Amino acid sequence: MLTQLQNDFRDVMAGVATPVSVVTAFHDGSPHGTTVSAFTSLSMDPPMVLVSLDKTSRLLGLIRKSRRFGVNVLGAAQAETARSFAKKLEMGEKFAGVDWRRDNELPRLAGVPGWLACTVSQEVEGGDHIVLFGRVVSASTATAAPLTYHSRTFGTHSLLAQSA
Ligand SMILES: Cc1cc2nc3c(=O)[nH]c(=O)nc-3n(C[C@H](O)[C@H](O)[C@H](O)COP(=O)(O)O)c2cc1C
User: Fold this and answer.
1) Closest ligand 1 atom to the C-alpha of 60?
2) Residue-level pLDDT at 164
């Protein structure tokens, strides 16, 4: 049962538009991934990002062992991918029927507009989540409209109308 403050907090955060990524790692050669909105750029020198994972996340346990993770920044055509990687499934099951390949010893999804391979440089506890600081070891991009999450629905970015 959430408190009034927690409900209000959740509603405010639902109004914050975020990018949507699938964060990935390997476990004994088997790929695993989780849909994540809590991902942002952290540093340019050296290039770093941060990702926040629930303490109950299965992926978190894998990343803590392998000390590396991939960030697949999704495009507007990949809402179904975001939905399926947000399910609680056994190891390897989320990748059934998914087009992916190995890149920098990490699972990389096909057709993503943004890809980062990272090594974990630090972990910070934040309430019921763990924030992972990732040192970027490889980055590549392709031009595509982004997938966004706002008011509990998927969308994309669009330009404001030009003022006269
Ligand atoms: C749009 C969206 C964004 C999400 N963002 C996060 C997030 O930032 N961190 C997180 O731990 N879970 C997030 N989740 C929930 C996880 O994807 C979900 O709990 C998943 O089942 C965890 O799988 P795992 O236990 O295999 O890691 C998000 C789900 C959706 C649909």
Assistant:
1) 27
2) 62
